[in-house]
């Protein structure tokens, strides 16, 4: 089975994430970044499926030069090859434009329609969870999303989706697109052998022209949504210290009441 996994390079949640002051877009260059944690589960699930049978795993990402680090991590985990869509015109693209570029990249990477497309449930920077559905629509594939368990049997894929009140079993015919949750597996750490092997694996770089996508369809000017303004979070203030002189409980209750917590 040939599987295409869409991954994203995102700012590290532990770093000081911010926006570009020039156009209010997310700063992806001036901060530390990494492969989106939720995408690691999609890569791991693809590797498990191929290891249980046969085929190959191709990872696809869109982003600046630094986005190559996301592909490197996926290749070190065990993916066979990677595609990096890199074009200055993509900067500022919203989910709609992103799904357009991804769709063309997936089709080109698979040489047509892939047997299976895997994604994370969301990106850790946007957390919108809409790109998988948009991508499935553009590819003309059935979408089965938020999979906590996934099996492929013949020409169909079955997932279990866990909700707050119940679990659903959903079946779709292949080819299909599946997004997975962080409950589906435990992503592997790249081994030394995997890290060394990744250096020899093919990584292709494509522009919008290579995908046949008009630059006017993507980028900040074509975005349906934009960030109008942003304000940095103010520094945390020192908390109030209550000295317990036998009435600490009363003072705490008064504080909570004044703040309308109780």
What is the strand and helix layout of this fold?
Blueprint: E1 2-6, E2 9-11, E3 33-35, H1 37-51, E4 56-62, H2 68-77, E5 81-85, H3 95-110, E6 116-120, H4 131-139, E7 143-147, E8 149-153, E9 156-162, E10 167-173, E11 176-180, H5 192-198, E12 203-206, H6 208-211, H7 248-258
Parallel strand pairs: 1-4, 1-6, 4-5, 5-12, 6-11, 7-11
Antiparallel strand pairs: 2-3, 8-9, 9-10
Function: The electron transfer flavoprotein serves as a specific electron acceptor for other dehydrogenases. It transfers the electrons to the main respiratory chain via ETF-ubiquinone oxidoreductase (ETF dehydrogenase).
Family: Belongs to the ETF beta-subunit/FixA family.
Domain Electron transfer flavoprotein alpha/beta-subunit N-terminal: 23-215
Structure notes:
With 262 residues, the protein is an alpha/beta fold. Helix content is 27%, strand content 23%. It has helices spanning 37-51, 68-77, 95-110, 131-139, 192-198, 208-211, 248-258, and strands spanning 2-6, 9-11, 33-35, 56-62, 81-85, 116-120, 143-147, 149-153, 156-162, 167-173, 176-180, 203-206. The strands form three sheets. A seven-stranded parallel sheet has the order 7-11-6-1-4-5-12, with helices on both faces. The chain has a three-stranded antiparallel sheet with strand order 8-9-10, with no helix packed on it. Strand 8 (149-153) and strand 9 form a beta hairpin. Helix 2 packs across helix 5 (192-198) and helix 3 packs across helix 4 (131-139). The model has no long low-confidence stretch (mean pLDDT 93).
């Amino acid at each position: 089975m040939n599987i295409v996994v869409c991954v994203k390079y995102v700012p590290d949640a532990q770093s000081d994430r911010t926006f570009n002051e020039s156009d209010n877009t997310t700063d992806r260059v001036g901060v530390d970044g990494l492969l989106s944690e939720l995408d690691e589960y999609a890569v791991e699930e693809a590797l498990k499926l191929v290891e249980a049978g046969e085929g190959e795993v191709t990872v696809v990402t869109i982003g600046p030069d630094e986005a190559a680090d996301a592909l490197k991590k996926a290749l070190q985990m065990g993916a066979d090859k990677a595609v990096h869509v890199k074009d200055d015109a993509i900067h500022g693209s919203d989910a709609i434009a992103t799904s357009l570029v991804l769709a063309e990249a997936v089709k080109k990477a698979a040489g047509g329609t892939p047997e299976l497309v895997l994604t994370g449930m969301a990106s850790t920077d946007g957390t919108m969870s809409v790109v998988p559905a948009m991508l499935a629509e553009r590819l003309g594939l059935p979408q089965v999303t938020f999979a906590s368990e996934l099996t492929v049997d013949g020409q169909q894929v079955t997932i279990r989706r866990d909700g707050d009140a119940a679990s659903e079993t959903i079946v779709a015919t292949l080819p299909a697109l599946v997004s997975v949750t962080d409950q589906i597996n435990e992503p592997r750490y790249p081994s030394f052998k995997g890290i060394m092997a990744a250096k020899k694996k093919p990584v292709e770089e494509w522009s919008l022209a290579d995908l046949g996508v008009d630059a006017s369809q993507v980028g900040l000017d074509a975005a349906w949504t934009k960030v109008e303004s942003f304000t940095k979070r103010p520094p945390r203030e020192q908390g109030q210290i209550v000295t317990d002189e036998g009435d600490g409980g009363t003072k705490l209750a008064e504080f909570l009441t004044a703040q309308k917590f109780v």
